Amino acid sequence: MKRLIILTILLVSFSQLFAQNQIDTIEVKKALLTVFKQNNKVLTPRQLLKITQINQEAYKEMKMAESNFDAVVVCGFIGGFMVVYPLGTAIASGDANWTLAGIGLGLIAASVPFSVAYSKHAKNGVRIYNNGLLKTESKKIDFNLGLTSNGIGIRITF
């Protein structure tokens, strides 16, 4: 039993422990639309806003991005409805209001600048957030158990 304790103490004295600080950076994936991922999970604009609350600059950018995203959703949804409704009417009965479809296409086109602004502000907010995380990364901490002049002791190195 005594040998087991001594062996355990020796093995522990030769090992190093590190403080674990998982850096949760946000990845930007460019496809048809810009997609933001954290830990392989796709993030919504609302989730991005919540995550970036710890960094005031990034949060400010994400607030602007979210307002642009809301404008894209509203214009796109209303414009899409205004285009699809006359198309459905034309297919069903043949008497469609094409002026309504034209206005809908205009709304969809109006949402494009908002989409570009969303992407720009969101990417900038993510860049600021990720740079802030890298600055606060913790340093390596070593724990060493060994013999000292007073007996057995632990040495912690930062």
**What string, H for helix and E for strand, traces the elements in order?**
HEEEHHHEE
- Count of runs of 4 or more consecutive helical residues: 4
The proportion of residues in beta strands is 15-25%
Helix content: 55-70%
Number of strands: 5
Provide the gyration radius in Å. Answer: 28 Å
Mean pLDDT: 82
What is the molecular shape?
A: elongated
How far the N terminus sits from the C terminus, by CA atoms, comes to 34 Å
Helix/strand/pairing category: alpha+beta
Poorly predicted segments: 17-21
Tally of distinct domains: 1
Strands of the widest sheet, in order across it, are: 1-2-3
Biggest sheet character: 3 strands, antiparallel
Structure, explained:
The protein is α+β, with helices and mostly antiparallel strands and 158 residues long. It has one domain. It is 60% helix and 16% strand. The protein contains 4 helices and 5 strands, in the order αβββαααββ. It has a 3-stranded antiparallel beta sheet. A two-stranded antiparallel ribbon has the order 4-5. A hairpin with a 2-residue loop joins strand 4 and strand 5. Helix 2 runs antiparallel to helix 3 and helix 3 packs antiparallel against helix 4. The longest helix is centred in the last third of the chain and has 38 residues. About 3% of the residues have low confidence.
List keywords for this structure.
three-stranded antiparallel sheet, 60% helix, single chain, 158 residues, 4 helices, two-stranded antiparallel sheet, 5 strands, elongated, alpha+beta
